[in-house]
Design goal:
CATH architecture of the largest domain: Orthogonal Bundle
Strand order of the largest sheet: 1-2
Helix content: 40-55%
Number of domains: 4
Distance between the termini: 97 Å
Structural class: mainly alpha
Order of helices and strands: EEHEEHHHHHHHHHH
Strand content: under 5%
CATH topology of the largest domain: Cytochrome Bc1 Complex, Chain D, domain 2
CATH class of the largest domain: Mainly Alpha
Length: about 300
Amino acid sequence: MSNPTDPRQLPGADPHTGNRKVDPVTGYETTGHDWGGITELNTAFPKIVIWALILAVTYSVIAWILLPAWPLGRDYTRGLLGLDQGQQALEGFQELSAGRQDWLSRFGDGDFAALQSDADLMARALPAAERLFSDNCAACHGDAGQGGPGYPVLADDHWLWGGDPAAIAETLHVGINADHPDTRIAEMPAFDWMERADRTALAQYVSELPSGRADVDSSGATLFAENCASCHGDGGAGGLEGIGAPSLTDGSVIYGQDEGTVMETLKLGRHGVMPAWTGRLSDAEINLLALYVVALGQRGAEAAQ
C-alpha cells in the first residue's frame, strides 16, 4: 500500500533515497513525467514574469487613482489628474482651427481668380481641401471624384450645373433637390406613359450614344429628339447646365447607360438629392472645396486627353 507522505514514492524520486532524479545536462530535478523519452524538468517559474505581473498590477492601481477609469452610470471617475479626453480633443481642434484661420479667412470673399493665382496659398490649403473632400464628399463621389451609381463623376470636364468655381460653390451652398429654400431643382420624369416598344427603341438608342454607334435614322432617334433633346441637347451632347441634365454621350453617366438601366430610368424616372452644405461648412470652406473640385475636373480632363 502506497504512503503519499513517503518521499521515495513521489513521481521522479529515487525509490531508495527519496531524492528526485537530476537531469545531467541542465542540473534541474525531474518531475517523473516522461513523454516518449522526453523528461519534464522541475524548473522554477521565471522571475521576469513574476516581476512583469507585479509591475502591471502596480501600474493598474496607480492608473485607477490618477486617470479616468471607473464608469459611474452615465459618468466616470475623473482621477486625481482630472484628465478629460473630450476636452483635450476640443482644445486640440480649437488650436488647429486658430492656426489655419490666417490663410483660410482669405477664401471667404469668393474671389476665385485671385485665389487660384496665388500658388503658395493653394499649396498651403491643399491638405485641408483634401480633408474636407474626404470627410464630406468622398462617401458619395469617391476618394478621387470618380463617382459611382447614382453619384456624378467630378474628375472630368462634364458638369450638370456648371464647372466654374462660383457655380460649384453655389451647388455646395444650396444643394440639389435639398431642403434649402434656394436649392437647385432637377428631376428626370418617368416615361411610363410611353408604349413599351417605343421605350425599348429609345433605350437602345440612348445606350449606344457613348460608343457613337447610335442610328440617327432610327425610331429611337426620332423619339429622343421629340422627348429628350430639350433637356439633354441634340444627340444627347448635353451642355444645358442650367437645368442639371447630363450629357449622354460620354462615360460619366450617373445611373448607368446599358439598355436595361436606361429602360428602368425611362419607366421610373430619377430624382437624385445632394444635401446643402450651408450651415455645416463655412463660406470659406465651401469656396476652398469648390476650388478643389475644379482641380479634380481639370486633372481628369487632362488625363483623358
